[in-house]
Amino acid sequence: MPVRRLVLAFIFIVIVGIAAVLIWQGRFRGQQGEKWGGKSGQGWGQRPGGMEQYSLDTLKPKAKPPSEKVSVYKGFWLPCSFMEDSCQPMNDIKILRTIGTNIVGIAPNIKINEKGEIKAFPLDYFDQRLNEITARYYQAGIRVFMSPELDYSTDLNSRSQGAPQPIPKGVAATPGFMDKYDVLVEDFARLAEKYQFEFFSPLNEADMKLGNTVASSWGQKILPQIKSNYKGKVLWKVGLGVDPQIQQINFRGYDILGIDFTAPGGTEAQSLFSFPSIVKGAIENAKKVAKRDAVPEVILAEVGVWGGALNFSEEGKVGIHRIIFEQGKDIIGGFIILDPPRDLGGWTLKNSKSQEEIKSWFNLKL
Question: Torsion angle, CA of 206/212/213/217, rounded to 10 degrees?
Answer without folding.
Answer: 40
